[in-house]
Amino acid sequence: MSETEKKLIEVSNLKKYFPVKGAFGINKNKYVKAVDDVSFYIKKGETFGLVGESGCGKSTLGRTITRLYDVTDGKVIFDGRDIARLGKKELKPYHKRMQVIFQDPYSSLNPYMNVSEIIDEPMAIHSNLSRVERMEKIEELLKRVGMKKSDMEKFPHEFSGGQRQRIGIARALSIEPEFVLCDEPISALDVSIQAQVVNMLEDFQKDMGLTYLFVAHDLSMVKHISSRIGVMYLGKIIEISESRNLYKNPLHPYTKALLSSIPVPDPKKASAALNKIIEGELPSPMDIPTGCRFRTRCPYATPICSEKEPEMKEVDKGHTVACHLF
């Protein structure tokens, strides 16, 4: 692998389980397996898209990688070092290199701080800049995200959702990180604003050499922004491929059904996969079935699907899938 294709993040057998709380406290025998034995990598400078239905563990995976959540088991190798077991002091320099753009622009900003204080907070912690230098940088960042110098003294409630998300982006990029978790950053925005935000993220990536993990529901937008895409189902990544190839030649039945859900303007041109719509609710992550976890909803399920869990296999160059059909 060349220098330009260097792995910035490598996740190995990562698990994140949440204990179940009942009427009498935590039940140590029951866990929600939000992330269950996930392995993949993200190359330096690329955008890795992560898709899947609600509850599949996408956001939890991203937050575990950035160590917002503690790791239950497995490795998170960031730029050559495993950070899965590091304490708060040891993590501080890595938090400077990893930042998050959150989904909800309404709850992710402190309502008691004005814009300059919100963006200045991470710089005051992680940089050696003077206050004057930080204020100059805040003004420059606001200009880059399409806002004005006069907005510095305003509070979050004075802005629209799109403007708040721009402030969140400016805050995340203020300390010049290397890796950014984009945790569904456009799902709460209007369609016209979504395109502006995505274009802005792409511009920052080119200028700053950023690496993104882009978590989203909007499959068409993920196709536009991502270099490679991982499809997640019930805590596991079941297919990984280059963006164009995944949309052109999806292999896993779940991926096919997921892509068939993308709205098509002309009903006559709708995907033939619509005839194989997934039936049933997402199984409980506390009681994952033996064998293939998708088998209870798969139209192609065979007896082996209930006996053995499929392993990730490389079917084509750069295209891996976990399915007994391959």
UniProtKB/TrEMBL annotation:
<keyword id="KW-0067">ATP-binding</keyword>
<feature type="domain" description="ABC transporter">
    <location>
        <begin position="9"/>
        <end position="259"/>
    </location>
</feature>
<comment type="similarity">
    <text>Belongs to the ABC transporter superfamily.</text>
</comment>
<dbReference type="Pfam" id="PF00005">
    <property type="entry name" value="ABC_tran"/>
</dbReference>
<keyword id="KW-0547">Nucleotide-binding</keyword>
<dbReference type="GO" id="GO:0005524">
    <property type="term" value="F:ATP binding"/>
</dbReference>
<dbReference type="InterPro" id="IPR027417">
    <property type="entry name" value="P-loop_NTPase"/>
</dbReference>
<dbReference type="InterPro" id="IPR050319">
    <property type="entry name" value="ABC_transp_ATP-bind"/>
</dbReference>
<dbReference type="InterPro" id="IPR003593">
    <property type="entry name" value="AAA+_ATPase"/>
</dbReference>
<dbReference type="InterPro" id="IPR013563">
    <property type="entry name" value="Oligopep_ABC_C"/>
</dbReference>
<keyword id="KW-0813">Transport</keyword>
<protein>
    <submittedName>
        <fullName>ABC transporter ATP-binding protein</fullName>
    </submittedName>
</protein>
<dbReference type="InterPro" id="IPR017871">
    <property type="entry name" value="ABC_transporter-like_CS"/>
</dbReference>
<dbReference type="InterPro" id="IPR003439">
    <property type="entry name" value="ABC_transporter-like_ATP-bd"/>
</dbReference>
<dbReference type="Pfam" id="PF08352">
    <property type="entry name" value="oligo_HPY"/>
</dbReference>
